[in-house]
Design goal:
It contains 16 helices and 29 strands. The chain is an alpha+beta fold. Among the domains are: about 50-80, Wheat Germ Agglutinin (Isolectin 2), domain 1 (2-Layer Sandwich), CATH 3.30.60; about 175-270, SH3 type barrels (Roll), CATH 2.30.30; about 285-365, Roll (SH3 type barrels), CATH 2.30.30.140; about 390-480, SH3 type barrels; about 500-565, SH3 type barrels. The model is unreliable at about 1-30, about 40-50, about 85-120, about 130-140, about 575-585 and about 590-644 (pLDDT under 50). One of its GO terms (cellular component) is nucleus.
Length: about 650
């Protein structure tokens, strides 16, 4: 762990009284590596001889960490360089010819004392502080997750909630009190040195860290991305030959740093030794530029078009439609999005497809292998199945803030369905949209009523409040059987109030600061911080459009901060004008209540069983909802003992 240390067998009884009062480290999950005081990796000098300065490079550190019996050099390299007569001659010649102030190497030859050598770095230290202040002033103008969370005591959704995100499936038990090695920013040295810090709080990928030795002092706490290149497991410095130097603020707090660290680190947890490798591997994406895919036509939802992958950022694809000459006609989505498919998919299931005017592939373009796309669950269509004309509730892709009364317009192969929104369909069916039968974005009739979600009735329907029984009778329709819908609810881990980064589904190229405000089984209500509730959207818990806090920083994607009052007012005015007429261009999911998916639950006593009962955090469920007559198509209602 410490550069050049190979033993910690010294008696630690000389520790100061403050060391004896140190609290025991709280036990952590056993799956992380345990730090052991085995005398090989985690050692530190006893500090009895105090600090020392390398006579070659000027590095300041604890004396016992230095090489040679006289502890004059910080490394073997410096020791060998100093012993070179040609090196000394070169330095002396430079002093005589140029007349420049002595460099740190020249001072070695002049045998100046430690105080003089430390003073040589005073100006350098002041420069660093000025640069830090300048950077801090700039960062205050931009959004900082750390400041945002600290100032409001927010919590963030854990990385394990996002299986599609880097490290989402291998995050393990990284939690508070895990120790890491990080750069020591409280240091006046010109080179990068490290120190050990513990995780105080986790927020997605971001961690609030505190240097060892500061105890309850939060003065130098700092936020960083735990997957960043400067975060390492304890022991990395020893393996890499990097020096560990205590922060300047507490440098003289303990006389026996070795005993202190042995006591603090023994039995604690650190990152897995291959953590950085796992991060790197989880950020390798199979989709590459120039791959061809079939993607929904944003101007005509009923069909797909060929598009080419222009760029890949964190698994998100910028697709350019193949016929776009200036390459500006694009579409953003995640590589696991249900909106993209392999070449030939439309023909295989009977979906509409717009043929390209380009007769042959452009040089370098190639079809994406089919196995790279998200797989859908296999279904059996031979028995009772969806039929044309059946009614259901579905998300309107042209206004994803709403769950609407909808109708199955066409049954395709492999379990795919073409669906239209009642009361607002185009005569030619150009606004029909495709969902799979297992999609969490379609629901049986009555889902919204049971879960106290507003259902959008057909446009022009005046018999309000809307009642499914009356509507089915008036239209001579039947409801799609409940048993055909997706009933799976994963243990997603989301909680109301959790922060995350979410795609603005009105403009899917944007990712914004967001909050989970409501949970109904697998359905999440996402609120965009700084915006009114009318811009909220419903999203499935497994949607690839949700990311942990810190995802944008990790992948290099630009994060949109919470909207200011002025921007809200200007954009709200323009958006309200757009809402007066439904747009036929599908940019993505509308930034207002956009359910990417919902779990279907019904409270139908004695018929569907308790697995359909609806529960939610502090949201009461209507126990008197009479939907059984609708589901059973005119059977006896056991709740009211009447026949409908």
């Amino acid at each position: 762990m410490f550069d050049g240390y190979d033993s910690c067998s010294e008696d630690t009884s000389s520790s100061s009284s403050s060391e004896e009062s140190e609290e025991e480290v709280a036990p952590l999950p056993s799956s992380l590596p345990i730090i052991k005081n085995n005398g090989q990796v985690y050692t530190y000098p006893d500090g009895k001889s105090g600090m020392a300065t390398c006579e070659m490079c000027g590095m300041v550190g604890v004396r016992d960490a230095f090489y040679s019996k006289t502890k004059r050099f910080c490394s073997v390299s410096c020791s060998r360089s100093y012993s070179s007569n040609s090196k000394k001659a070169s330095i002396l010649a430079r002093l005589q010819v140029t007349g420049k102030p002595p460099t740190k190497k020249a001072k070695v030859l002049q045998k100046q004392p430690l105080v003089a050598k430390l003073a040589a770095y005073a100006q350098y230290q002041a420069t660093l502080q000025n640069q830090a202040k300048t950077k801090a002033a700039v960062s205050l103008e931009s959004f900082s997750w750390g400041n945002y969370i600290n100032s409001n005591s927010f919590i963030a959704a854990p990385v394990t909630c996002f299986k599609h995100a880097p490290m989402g499936t291998c995050w393990g038990d990284i939690s508070e009190n895990v120790r890491v090695e990080v750069p020591n920013t409280d240091c006046s040295l010109p080179t990068k040195v490290f120190w050990i810090a513990g995780i105080i709080k986790l927020a997605g990928y971001n961690a609030l860290l505190r240097y060892e030795g500061f105890e309850n002092d939060s003065g130098l706490d700092f936020w960083c991305n735990i997957c960043g290149s400067d975060i390492h497991p304890v022991g990395w410095c020893a393996a890499s030959g990097k020096p560990l130097v205590p922060p300047r603020t507490i440098q003289h707090k303990y006389t026996n740093w070795k005993a202190f660290l042995v006591k603090r680190l023994t039995g604690a947890k650190t990152l897995p030794p291959d953590f950085s490798q796992k991060v790197s591997e989880s950020m390798q994406y199979p989709f590459k530029p120039c791959m061809r895919v079939e993607v929904v036509d944003k101007r005509h939802l009923c069909r797909t078009r060929v598009a080419v992958v222009e760029s890949v950022i964190g698994g998100r694809l910028r697709l350019v439609y193949e016929e776009s000459e200036d390459r500006t006609d694009d579409f953003w989505c995640h590589m696991h999005s249900p909106l993209i498919h392999h070449i030939g998919w439309s023909r295989s299931i009977g979906h509409r497809f717009k043929r390209s005017d380009i007769t042959k592939k452009q040089d370098g373009h190639f079809d994406t292998p089919p196995h790279l796309f998200a797989k859908v669950k296999e279904v059996d269509q031979s028995g009772e199945w969806f039929k044309e004309g059946m009614k259901l509730e579905a998300i309107d892709p042209l206004n994803l803030s709403t769950i609407c009364v909808a109708t199955i317009r066409k049954v395709l192969a492999d379990g795919f369905l073409m669906i239209g929104i009642d009361g607002s369909e185009a005569a030619d069916g150009s606004d029909w949209f495709c969902y799979h039968a297992t999609s969490p974005s379609i629901f049986p009739v009555g889902f919204c009523e049971i879960n106290m979600i507003e259902l959008t009735p057909p446009r022009g329907y005046t018999k309000l409040p809307f009642k499914w029984f009356d509507y089915l009778r008036e239209t001579g329709s039947i409801a799609a059987p409940v048993k055909l819908f997706n009933k799976d609810v994963p243990n997603h881990g989301f909680r109301v109030g959790m922060k995350l980064e979410a795609v603005d589904l009105m403009e899917p190229r944007l990712i914004c600061v967001a909050t989970v405000t409501r949970i109904i089984h697998r359905l999440l209500r996402i609120h965009f911080d700084g915006w009114e509730e009318e811009y909220d959207q419903w999203v499935d818990c497994e949607s690839p459009d949700l990311y942990p806090v810190g995802w944008c920083q990790l992948t290099g994607y630009q994060l949109q901060p919470p909207a200011s009052q002025s921007s809200r007012e200007s954009q709200s005015a323009s958006s309200k004008q757009k809402k007066k007429a439904k747009s036929q261009q599908y940019k993505g999911h509308k930034k207002s209540g956009s359910p990417r998916g919902v779990y279907i639950h019904f409270l139908i006593v004695n018929q569907l069983g308790s697995q359909w009962s609806s529960t939610e955090n502090s949201i009461p469920v209507r126990a008197d909802a009479c939907l059984l007559c609708i589901m059973l198509k005119g059977a006896v209602c056991h709740k009211r003992q009447t026949f409908h």
